[in-house]
Amino acid sequence: MVAMSKIATGNGHGENSPYFDGWKAYETNPFHPTERPNGVIQMGLAENQLCFDFFQKWLMKHPEASLCSPEGVRKFKETALFQDYHGMPEFRKAVAKFMGKVRGDRVKFDPDRIVMSGGATGAHEMVTFCLADPGEAFLVPTPYYPGFDRDLRWRTRVELVPVDCESSNNFKITRTALEAAYEQAQAANLRVKGLLITNPSNPLGTILDRETLKSIVSFINEKNIHLIGDEIYSATVFMEPEFVSISEIIEEDIECNRDLIHIVYSLSKDMGLPGFRVGIVYSYNDAVVSCARKMSSFGLVSSQTQHLIASMLSDDDFVESFIVESKERLFKRHKYFTWSLSQVGIGSLQSNAGLFIWMDLRKLLKEKTFKAEMDLWQVIIKEVKLNVSPGSSFHCQEPGWFRVCFANMDDNTVEVALMRIRTFMLKNNEAMVPRSKLCRRSSLKLSLSRRKDDFITSPGIMSPHSPLPTSPLVRART
Amino acid sequence: MAIENEQPAVGLSKVAVSETHGEDSPYFAGWKAYDENPYDESSNQSGVIQMGLAENQVSFDLLEKYLEEHSEASSWGIGAPGFRENALFQDYHGLKSFRQAMANFMEQIRGGRAKFDPDRIVLTAGATAANELLTFILADPGDALLVPTPYYPGLDRDLRWRTGVKIVPIHCDSSNNFQVTPEALEAAYECAESMNLKVRGVLITNPSNPLGATIQRSVLEEILEFVTRKNIHLVSDEIYSGSTFSSSEFISIAEILEAHDYKNSERVHIVYSLSKDLGLPGFRVGTIYSYNDKVVTTARRMSSFTLISSQTQHLLACMLSNKEFTENYIKTNRESLRKRYEMIIKGLKNAGIECLKGNAGLFCWMNLSPLLEESTREGELALWKVILNEVRLNISPGSSCHCSEPGWFRVCFANMSEQTLEVALERIHKLMEQRKSKET
Hints:
Family (chain B): Belongs to the class-I pyridoxal-phosphate-dependent aminotransferase family.
Protein name (chain B): 1-aminocyclopropane-1-carboxylate synthase 7
Keywords (chain B): Pyridoxal phosphate
Pfam family, one (chain B): Aminotran_1_2
Strand order of the largest sheet of chain A: 2-8-7-6-5-3-4
Shape of chain A: globular
Structural class of chain B: alpha/beta
Number of strands of chain B: 13
InterPro entries (chain B): Aminotransferase_I/II_large, Ethylene_sulfur-biosynth, NHTrfase_class1_PyrdxlP-BS, PyrdxlP-dep_Trfase, PyrdxlP-dep_Trfase_major, PyrdxlP-dep_Trfase_small
Order of helices and strands of chain A: HHEHHHEHEHEHEHEHEEHHHEEHEEEH
Largest interface: A-B, 79 and 82 residues
Oligomer: heterodimer
Largest sheet of chain B: 7 strands, mixed
């Protein structure tokens, strides 16, 4: 038998993670409103499906954006021939402008620092190849997107060292945790080359506050390591507090070596176009821009897609109204979803961004272990028939948390999912472990009324920045 | 910005600061001269004519005609109902209809002499990514791949840069038209062994870049026998297969395997792309076709880093599913390239210049060794500079393709109009006339 490489035969592809097990259950029996009403509803895929009508309207008005239309075909030849790894100037300008607008025009992005990649997946791998040698390490706060295990490590052979964050302070990234992770790496003889933060966070759906960002910037400067800011969810911040980008922090009164700062971006989440593979690396370091640009040869954005995106994002009216409308729809969906969950006693981390919530099912665990989390998860997939993602697959240090996506389905499917959750909670309310004398679980009768101004969250999950009135107690209404 | 040679204040990786990206090669230096002073038929008639870029521009009228006649099908339909599904599609298996269309297209190019299973097709953003990806899968850092010379300069980057794998050349020379011989294969293998390098495979390009010629059946058999005996892989880069001037002259490794009943085929992997045959380098359409299940699965997973835009998959699925279109395209493209080839060969012959007998590709392999001041790499580069700066043609020196014999140049002929080619040939003619009169 002819052998393959170690990279090929190892498990670095990461597909043995439970993150993907639920997908298999979904794929064998996917929900369909009429054909498979008892199928598994996919809530493990962070997609943004709320704004396609917007695109359709725009496309009808701008046939020239497609090379296939009679209006667009005259650009076919020059576009089809364009393979310059600098990328189309119009494309880079349009993306830079979009990134600025998403940040309220509080910062400007230089189109010449924009480097293309095969989605954010390609961008992360490419940045890692530029910044770290095999055997070196990046620090990554937990919980984090499972794909990083593959994207940052598989072919690069770089290590990841977790920065532990806990629910007691809403998973804040503390200086203490950063220092501890750094020391842990040193003790393991790993040379730390950088810190990767995802802001807004996947899976938490929260944003980093100014103090945390400043603390992070001071930390990386002190240690002289790189900072990679994954901001692919930046346009999904649907409510206060306002998003603060790393690009803004470094413009403020703070000591920072800009050669350490790099941003990963993509249109897959903010615009809901994962199929188009539009990944971006934006670096403040000239050498990294130059190197990444050469490497981008391995994952350029199709010129056909560059042409379409350039047209779309050059349209200021479209961009402005898209950003506003998208936030509005995400806000509504998030609010309804979290409110409905709270009605049946399910809380989640207070969040204002992302395409998912970080659901707190700790009180449903038979014991405070990851095995119990897996058992509960199996129940959710097999009985409740929802594919949600267990916190352990995100390297969360505490069992009982689940990421639940809410933006990848229509309103009807949301209702079906909520109905299944309600049914499950009704069945199980006797089985729930009582956490407080104030929770009269035995006589719990759940109200299904939709008084949307009633907003209740579980104890201990209040964000210091939450603008909404919250009750510290789970209060059941009989 | 010679950033590559400076050590930046804060560390980048070794890969980042190395020069294995290969851009300091003269292959790319000529492009700079062209970028600074590009020829234009109307506005810059004294500019540099780009003959260093292997692009296929002879068949765009066919593509444009298809799009004009099938506008709705290839876009998202009226009102764009198909947009949503297409924009969401990021499955690394790739669009089934597109893989089916690619399999059919590859079969048609080979005159139906080989069959391709769509489920063995893995999609990558260009052949550049495909070659790198396969290298990651077949070899460990520090291992070696054997590659016949002369070869496409980009392989130095694609096979080596981020993978850490080495290339050991299989030396070929003009005594037998640069064909690979069993002796050369063995010599390369032994050379690798003497450097303590573990050989993991052989990579051939068929039709060859830069030779512009197909590999003979007997040579393919010998190469297959060699890799089987050594128990190593064989990668066959067939991105110019649809650019063979006559259908019957191209023999794919797939046909050899078919003739052997697919015995020992799990070591064979084919790289294909639409950048050359269809002239769509901007769309980034590459594929890996492997007869090895594990390689297919692993390659598919790795393709996550370099997927083809679903928008592009959709367009090409439509185009390449249209049998009438593809049959006509393949036939017409071959014919147009053959005519172009004959035009340049005739023009060069009139100027007293010989080329290697070619039957494929977008370029010819020109022999200027009689013009060298000295038969060395330096002599070749000196002549190349004259051709670039005085004759104002950007052609690729054989040394940048690792050719062991100085004096050969790759000259592209399909990336320009016929008029521009005429101008280029006139300039070459003038150069040769000047040289002749200098001698007398």
